[in-house]
Design brief:
The chain has 10 helices and 8 strands. With 300 residues, the chain is α/β, with parallel strands linked by helices. Helix 8 packs across helix 9 (254-263).
Length: 300
């Protein structure tokens, strides 16, 4: 990843720090003296906890804390609604990922950080019938460079809300950017390798690593792969002599296993990082490294 990118992102944080002043907004000034930050997804939670590390009086939680492949099959619970209502700030992935909870978010008085601001978005590979059906692919965290912009957006937003800790937010954001810059290895060996996935969230990852994304099918209950799509994948595997196809670790593998039986290819799992343990930037880097290792083992 180019150092120039990180310098550009950091400069925006430093500029805000220089202009900041005064007291935090009333939304962050709670009776308990704690700033309650609610993150909609696990990647956003990881980036936010990285930026807030060591800051006293800040509590970061995630709205969706369960094993899940993506948000289009998720329904808000009563507890989720209460968490949104109690939040002093809400950090969103953006790019349409949270469209299904737009009414609940609109009812909240909490300021929001949209992590997709300034991120170059790709067209959606096909989200018809999904709750986050938009013109753009929202899985932006799967590209480390776009993840860096998300981190910068979080740092900028928090510094604006809580200027008393803006220097720490800026320093933490820079540390996360440095980790992203140096923490991923092996992507050069993935260039032009063929990728077939049973999740539509690997478009940014493929662009970042140079993988040749031949086919991506989003499988969920009620929208399984069609006979035509299965036949297309079978023909691709055979004609290209592709050794492996990939499912998402929390998604369905029924169709992939059927294709494997038909063609003899292997089935491997990749991680969309929509669930997991830990906080800070390292679990994100570890998950991305595991994806790279899996792809090299399966395809190279």
């Amino acid at each position: 990843m180019k150092k120039a990118l990180f310098s550009l992102l950091l400069s925006s944080l430093l500029l805000l720090s220089a202009c900041g002043g005064g007291q935090p907004s009333s939304s962050g000034d709670t009776e308990e003296g704690t700033l309650h930050i609610l993150c909609t997804t696990y990647p956003v939670y990881l980036f936010t906890t990285a930026v807030t590390e060591g800051v006293e009086g800040v509590e970061v939680s995630r709205l969706i804390d369960q094993q899940i492949s993506c948000l289009h099959d998720y329904t808000l619970t009563v507890n989720d609604m209460k968490a949104i209502e109690a939040a002093d700030m809400i950090v969103l992935n953006g790019a349409g990922l949270e469209d299904f909870m737009s009414d609940a978010l609109a009812a909240s008085d909490a300021p929001t950080i949209d992590c997709s601001e300034g991120v170059a978005l790709l067209s959606a590979p096909g989200h018809e019938g999904h709750d986050h059906d938009t013109a753009y692919d929202p899985h932006i965290w799967m590209d480390p460079e776009r993840a860096a912009q998300m981190v910068a957006n979080i740092g900028t937003g928090l510094a604006a809300l809580d200027p008393d800790h803006q220097d720490t937010y800026s320093q933490n954001a820079q540390a996360a950017l440095d980790a992203l810059d140096s923490g991923l290895e092996g992507t050069e060996a993935l260039a032009d390798l063929p990728l077939i996935t049973f999740h539509d969230g690997f478009q940014y990852f493929s662009q970042a690593t140079g993988l040749d994304l031949l086919k991506a099918i989003e499988e969920e209950e009620g929208s399984e792969a069609s006979a035509a799509e299965i036949l297309e994948i079978v023909e691709l595997v055979r004609s290209r002599d592709i050794p492996a196809i990939f499912t998402e670790k929390n998604g369905s593998d029924a169709t992939a296993q059927a294709i494997a039986r038909e063609t003899g290819c292997a089935v491997y799992q990749l991680d969309m990082i929509m669930s997991g343990d830990g906080s800070g930037i390292q679990p994100y880097i570890d998950a991305m490294d595991r994806n790279i290792d899996t792809l090299l083992e399966a395809l190279a």
